[in-house]
Amino acid sequence: MEIITSIASLRTRLKRESSIALVPTMGNLHQGHLSLVQIAQQQASCTVVSIFVNRLQFAPHEDFDRYPRTQTADCHLLEKLGVDIVFLPDEKTLYPTPQEFQLLLPAVADTLEGEFRPGFFRGVATVVLKLFNIVQPQLAVFGKKDYQQLYLMQKMVQQLNLPINIMAGETVRSEDGLALSSRNSYLSELEKQKASYLFRTLFQVKQKIEQDDHNFRLLEECAKCELAKQGWTVDYIALQQRETLLPANTGDTDLVILSAAWLGQTRLIDNLEISIPSHPESSE
Ligand code: PAF
After folding, report:
1. Residue nearest to atom 5 of ligand 1 (CA)
2. Which of 55, 128, 209, 272 is buried most, with the most CB atoms less than 10 Å from its CB?
3. Catalytic annotation, residues
4. pLDDT tens digits for 28-66?
């Protein structure tokens, strides 16, 4: 495995590759990231994993400084997996001057995560577009755990005509259902025991919908109340259409429930896809 820190060296090294897959990460890798790497490896002859904690996507009051940086351990994991290249730029390499050119995103980027983290997706899209330009992969893999991010990356490559296939990796969960996330390391032992409640709440909503309860707004409100009763501070719980990420309405069949909530000082996000079988018209 090669660890490359400069853009020029990476470009030279990648010249001889005909099929490149990129897995962009901010490091502190866990099984969720590794499953994305495995998808990339099945699809391309050269897999590049980038590790870069992107200041642009953190608001000033957010956890940029304390975001876990574990590059040595990350590189060991990637080497064991047989990754070809780790791209490990420092801040001066990706942002040698202030990043004044940034992307203008569609309105959906200001909803859900975007409502609570203004500018977040602009920062994500800007760094991902830079990484795409540097690596020029044919394929990039993003996790469904960051559902809205995945959605926006798919829209970005479509609307900017980037010749990149975006693939989605399923969320990896611990046994109790908690979605793996680098931010889980902020949780205290007690909080870790409570953390799977977010997933369980989403799962209960999914079950209710599958049992024909389609009062989506009421289901959202009840789920928020349940979490609040357990001591969580909820940013949002929203049942959306998978196709548009707009609020779901009665009759929609492909849904996703998205959530963000605080347990103590830690903000966790999770989501679940929900499919409602469309009932064939009654012939009577
Ligand atoms: O999902 C992440 O880890 C980040 O948002 C990404 C895509 C690597 C951009 O910094």
Report:
1. 124
2. 128
3. 33
4. 999 999 999 999 999 999 999 999 999 999 999 999 999
d(CA 233, ligand 1 centre) in Å? 24
3-class DSSP state for residue 248? coil
Query: What's CA 273's distance to the chain center, in Å?
Result: 14
- Ligand 1 atom at minimal distance to the Cα of residue 182: 3
Q: Is the pLDDT of residue 281 over 80?
A: no
DSSP state of 173: B
Residue 283 has pLDDT above 60, yes or no: no
**Residue 167: pLDDT band by 50, 70, 90 thresholds?**
very high
Q: How far is CA 67 from the centre of its chain?
A: 16
Pocket test residue of 124, 126, 151, 184 for ligand 1, highest count of atoms within 8 A of CB:
124
> Would the pTM of this model clear 0.90, i.e. be above it?
yes
Distance between CA 118 and CA 105 in Å, rounded? 12
Q: Give ligand 1 pocket residues (Cβ under 6 A).
A: 24-26, 54, 57, 124, 127-128, 146, 149
Task: Record the tokens describing residue 187, joined without a space.
Answer: 């949780």
How many A from CA of 30 to the centre of ligand 1?
Answer: 14
Other residues' Cβ atoms within 10 Å of the Cβ of residue 18: 8
Do 2-169 and 182-272 share a fold?
no
What is the band of 101 on the pLDDT scale with cuts at 50, 70, 90? Answer: very high
Multiple choice CATH, 2-169, 3.40.50.720, 3.40.50.620, 3.40.30.10, 3.40.50.1370: 3.40.50.620
| Nearest-5° Cα angle at 38, 128 to 41 | 80
Please state which CATH number belongs to domain 182-272.
3.30.1300.10
